[in-house]
Amino acid sequence: MPATPAIRPAANKLANVSNPLASLAQHCGVTLRVNRDMRAKHENGVFIGYEPTGDIVAAVSGTPEAIAAMRKRLEDAATPATNDRMEVWLVELDLIAPRKVSSSIEDDLRMQAYLTRLSAYPADVVREALLRRTWRFFPSWAELKDVCDELMKPRLAVLAALERAEQEAHERELGARSLPTEQTAVPTDGEAAARKAEAAHLVNEVLKGMKAKLAADEAAQEADAKAAQDSYAPFRTRGDE
To answer: Taking the model in full, what pTM does it have?
Structure first.
């Protein structure tokens, strides 16, 4: 197994894509960290550094109320733009990004195809992909989808972190409300002393039983040896005669 340093560098921080999320977290009172994950890289069995995995990792902390508020705001922000709004954005992009000439029927079909697919993304993600990214040519759907999916990664990672934090808080609350069991109950000093004394008593009783059995076994062995010796005594006497 190639040797990997025990101390791993911090994952690369995201730049502009995480700023809206950071602003939302600050507004809701949630501490948020969103980073690109890193993994160890080896060459010929030798560790040569770390490289991004392509995954986004997120961690959140805050009160249950703050966590719930941010999760709701993030879910509400997933609303897609209307077709009319997206059509305006697509027309604007069409004016500044060259594409091959096509018929009006093809233009209408293309517009409908893009509207149908873009409606699966939140409005701000679509607007970022269409108008804030620079396109030398009008993007194919594959190119546009890659950008939208990349923009969604931090949001999905944060949403997953918020859901985990809510679940953990819920489990802690259930644990606090449940009755104590023999394993979870904290005994008083008197109860602890009594349990210790009872355990010591049980140990002593077990030791006494073991000693008594050992003594009984030794006595039985001595009796058997004595009986055997007595049974052979006549034969020894005859031999002496």
So the answer is: 0.61
